Automatic annotation (TrEMBL):
One of its GO terms (molecular function) is aminoglycoside 6'-N-acetyltransferase activity. The keyword Acyltransferase applies. Keywords: Acyltransferase, Antibiotic resistance, Transferase. Residues 8-176 form the N-acetyltransferase domain. PROSITE patterns: GNAT (PS51186). The keyword Transferase applies. It comes from the Bacteria. Its EC number is 2.3.1.82. This is Aminoglycoside 6'-N-acetyltransferase.
């Protein structure tokens, strides 16, 4: 395992995981906040988005109690993203994640996942901050992130195209 915390395991994405991603990213409940219900993924789309060799993200599958339940990626923010968000010369990582198995929602696993990855990024990658930009309407996710110590920094107006409409997002951060 790449990262482990009790029943939670995070491992690097493998070729066989494309079937899981296609399953999760064609579920309207998952797509409501991740990618959009008007944008379901098939295997071809999964291959293009998640298996592009030039990506800088570290892409991982989340397992809980031996079951594959979700996805997380983390990445070092580039200078352009730092400038957009108003940061300077710090080591800043971003993350994106979802629990694709709906039966595992509302059980504290998202909180465990986010807190575990934040600890990993700070201790192993020497991050000064960890940032995310959830849609402002995704209150369940924002509450999870706040439980993990993230604070709202600023609203990012019309930041993400989702289901044909630009959505406001929050820039949230965890500071060391």
């Amino acid at each position: 395992m790449f990262i482990q915390n009790g029943k939670l395991n995070v491992r690097k994405l493998e070729e066989k995981d494309k079937y899981l991603l296609a399953k999760w990213l064609s579920d309207p409940l998952v797509l409501e906040f991740y990618e959009g219900r008007d944008h379901p993924f098939d295997l071809d789309q999964v291959n293009k988005v998640f298996y592009a060799p030039e990506d800088d993200e570290v892409k991982c599958i989340v397992e809980y109690d031996g079951n594959e339940i979700g996805y997380i990626q983390f990445y070092l923010l580039n200078n352009e993203a730092k400038k957009e968000y108003g940061y300077l010369n710090e080591i800043i990582y971003g993350t994106d994640q979802f629990i694709g198995e709906v039966a595992y929602w509302n059980k504290g696993i998202g909180t465990l996942l986010v807190s575990t990855i934040v600890t990993f990024l700070i201790e192993q990658k020497k991050a000064d901050r960890v940032v995310m930009d959830p849609q402002s309407r995704n209150t369940r996710a924002i509450k999870c992130y706040e439980k993990c110590g993230f604070k709202k920094v600023k609203i990012l107006p019309n930041h993400e195209l989702h289901e044909g409409k630009y959505q406001d997002c929050w820039l949230i951060e965890y500071r060391v």
